[in-house]
Amino acid sequence: MKPRIFLHRVARRLLWELDERDFFNRAQLTASKLRQAGAKIGPCGFAAFPLDIDGPVHLLEAGQWVGWGEDIIVLTRDLTPVPYLGLRREAPVRLVEFVDVGQGSILTAGVTIGPRAVVSGGTVVLEDVPPDCIAIGNPARSSPVYRRWYLSRLQDIRARPHLYTEQAVFTREAPPWPDAPREGIHITRDLEKGPDMSGVRRRLRRLLDWAAEQLRETDEQVLSDERIRILRKAGTRVGEGCHVADSAWIDPRPGMVEIGNSCIIGKRVIIFAHDGFAQEFTGFVRVAPVKILDGCVLEPGVIVQPGVTIGPGSIVRAGALVNRDVPPYTVVAGSPAKPVMSTQAYIRQLEADRQAHPERYLPDARAGRFSLPPEEPAAAPNSHEAPPSETAPSRS
Hints:
The protein has two domains: 23-195, UDP N-Acetylglucosamine Acyltransferase, domain 1, CATH 2.160.10; 220-363, 3 Solenoid (UDP N-Acetylglucosamine Acyltransferase, domain 1). It has 396 residues and is of the alpha/beta class. Helix 1 packs antiparallel against helix 5. A hairpin with a 4-residue loop joins strand 31 (330-333) and strand 32. Helices cover 25% and strands 21% of the residues. The strands form eight sheets. The chain has a six-stranded mixed β-sheet with strand order 2-5-10-13-15-16. The chain contains nine helices and 33 strands. Mean pLDDT is 86; it is low at 383-396. The longest helix has 16 residues, at 200-215.
C-alpha cells in the first residue's frame, strides 16, 4: 500500500474521532464544505452528514430547505457507457426545494426531485420524482401522498403528544401550502450565520481535515490499479482493462470471485462469496463462487450474493441486489434484481440522450472496450399454431 493512501486513512480515522458533536453546527459545516467544493446549495440546506458524491460536485443543485440523512450516495456521473462507447455521462442532480432525502438512499445522474417531495430511506432513485410525492423502494416508485402524510402527521401530534417530546432543530414560519393548517411550535435559528469553528477540538479537526485533503489521492486510475493489485495478490481473478473503485468490497477468499475483462465495479459495491446463514446451529458456512464475465458494469451500491454468475455485457443498476444469475447482455435493477431491458436497448437510450445533450458525454478510457453483438429480433409467433383459446382444454 502506498504511504500516501495509508496516511490518508489514518487522517480519516482521526477526523472520525474528532467528529462534531453539535448536530446543527455539523449540518452548517457540511453545507459550507459542499458550497466551497462548488455545489449549488440554497439557503437552509441541511446536510446532517457528508454526502458521498460520485462525480463532479458542482453538478449537485439543491434549493431552499433541503435536508439529507446519512449514508447517501449522489451520482453526478454515469460510468455505464465507458466499456461500450468509450464515454462517461455527467448530468446534474437537482433537488428543487422543501425536499427530504432519507438515509441510505441513492440518487442517480440526471434525476430531479420535485418540490415538497420525500425520498424515503433506502430508496434508489433512477427517474425523476414529481412534486408533492413520496418516493419509496428500489427502484423508486412515486405516489402523490405528501399532503395526506402531512395532514396525518398533524392529526397524530394532536392525538398522541407523548410521542413528540423532542424538538426539531428549526422550523419554517409558513406551512407547505398557503391553505394548509399549521400545528406545533416555532423554532428560530440564525440560518445565515456560518458554522461555529471556535474551540480547540474544532480547530484541530479543521487542521486534520485540511491534512486529509492534501493527502487524498485524487487520481481514480491510481486507486483502481492499487485495488486490483491487492485483489490479485489475495487470489481474486481480475481481467484486463478493468476499473475497480477503491471503496468496493470483494470477498477476500482466494479464487472465489472472478472478474472478466473490461469490467467496471462501482463505488461501495459488495460482492459476497460466502453465506453464514444459521452457522451458529449447523456449524457450516456456504461458500459459492461469483463470476462477473467480460464487459459487465456494476453501478455504485450493488450487492452480489454468493453463487451468482453475471453474463457478459450485462449492466447492474445502482443499489440492486443480485441473488440469481443475470443473462448475457441484460440490464437488471431493483431488490431483488430483475431484468428491465437489453443492454443494446439501454445503450440506444444513451445514444439518444447524447444527441440531445452532447455536452454531458466526455471521453473516458478507464476500462477496455467491449463490443456488443447485434440484438436478436423478438421471435415471431408460429402462424401454424392455433391460438391459445382454441387449444385450451374445456373446463366442462
